[in-house]
Automatic annotation (TrEMBL):
CDD domains: DeoC
Pathway where this protein functions: Carbohydrate degradation; 2-deoxy-D-ribose 1-phosphate degradation; D-glyceraldehyde 3-phosphate and acetaldehyde from 2-deoxy-alpha-D-ribose 1-phosphate: step 2/2
PANTHER family named in the record: DEOXYRIBOSE-PHOSPHATE ALDOLASE
Top-level EC class: lyase
MF-aspect GO terms: deoxyribose-phosphate aldolase activity
The encoding gene: deoC
Protein's UniProt name: Deoxyribose-phosphate aldolase
EC id: 4.1.2.4
Keyword Lyase: yes
Family: Belongs to the DeoC/FbaB aldolase family. DeoC type 2 subfamily.
């Protein structure tokens, strides 16, 4: 059964704080044990060698290749962009990644380096990773990234406001950021490691989608635990049920802690079994991981040649 939806007619005012609270706390509770058991069961699924090759290529195409360090330079971003377009210089058949994600001040560098490649430029904004800044500063952050050419904005919610039950504030901030995104897609980051419960993950998912999110994302990668299979399962259920209730499809991005090809395949199985095959494309599912791509490339080469490449064969990000 699809979960209830808080719908808005054209021109209708946003929900009040009281309406949001009533709606979010009226969502069915998450069976944490059941979610963990289902995620664990699905993670044991094995796939045939031919399907594994296809899964690796799909996972590569879903990667958001990311550098979010204080020491980032224009040169590092250009090198990352080159890798995004041609992940394996020795194999032109390897797919491009979905996007390169950088801080707002480096968006212009990435846009220029990726021009004409088809690889998107994502930018974290809104005082990433804390999300603790006045709304006007967060909106200015977003406007700057969009003006520089970002095609995707990754914003973080104010977890303090969410955990205090101030859902109206969180809703309003997401809606405001969405408005200044223009044509750029908005990914809303929950930092699920700080939300504590799967019930909160479900509430945050529905709140963000109702406020206009194009994607919902687990984590910044700066807090542990980051992405987990049970958390992603709950988010996949939410986007599935949201589409059933409203007709609008929203993407999902687990980020942080996804390091190996086995990890990536587990997430792809989860997507297929929980949300369905409509989400098995880079348009609707992304993998946020800084170290995953090299393992995918090594496993791909192993399938093709029968031997593993040396650990220094692929560039470090």
């Amino acid at each position: 059964m699809p979960e209830p939806t808080l719908t808005l007619a054209p021109g209708e005012s946003p929900p009040t704080a009281r309406e949001l609270r009533a709606f979010l706390h009226g969502l069915p509770g998450v069976d944490q044990v059941g979610a963990e058991e289902r995620a664990a069961r699905l993670s044991t699924r094995s796939i045939k060698t031919s399907a594994k090759a296809e899964a690796i290529d799909l996972a590569i195409a879903m990667v958001d290749l990311t550098t979010l360090e204080g020491a980032d330079t224009a040169g590092k971003v250009r090198a990352l962009c080159a890798k995004a377009v041609r992940p394996d210089p020795g194999d032109a058949e390897v797919p491009k990644v979905a996007a390169v994600c950088v801080y707002p001040d480096l968006v212009g560098v990435a846009v220029e380096a990726l021009r004409g490649s088809g690889v998107g430029v994502a930018s974290v904004a809104t005082s990433f990773p804390s999300g603790r800044a006045p709304l006007e500063a967060r909106l200015a952050d977003t406007r700057a990234a969009v003006a520089a050419g970002a095609s995707e904005i990754d914003m973080v919610i104010d977890r303090g406001a969410f955990l205090a039950g101030d859902y109206g504030k969180v809703f309003g901030e997401i809606a405001a950021v969405k408005q200044v995104c223009g044509g750029a897609h908005l990914k809303v980051i929950f930092e699920t490691g700080e939300l504590v419960t799967l019930d909160n993950v479900r509430r945050a998912s529905w709140l963000a989608m109702r406020a206009g999110a194009d994607f919902i994302k687990t984590s910044t990668g700066k807090v542990s635990p980051a992405a987990t299979l049970p958390v992603t399962l709950v988010m996949l259920e939410a986007v599935r049920d949201f589409r059933a209730a409203t007709g609008r499809q929203v993407g999902v991005k687990p980020a942080g802690g996804i390091r190996t090809t086995k990890d990536a395949v587990r997430y792809l199985v989860l997507v297929k079994e929980v949300a369905g095959p409509d989400w098995l494309t880079p348009e609707w599912f992304r993998l946020g991981a800084s170290s995953l791509l090299n393992d995918l490339l090594m496993q791909r080469r192993k399938l093709a040649t029968g031997v593993y490449s040396g650990p220094d064969y692929f560039t470090l990000d």
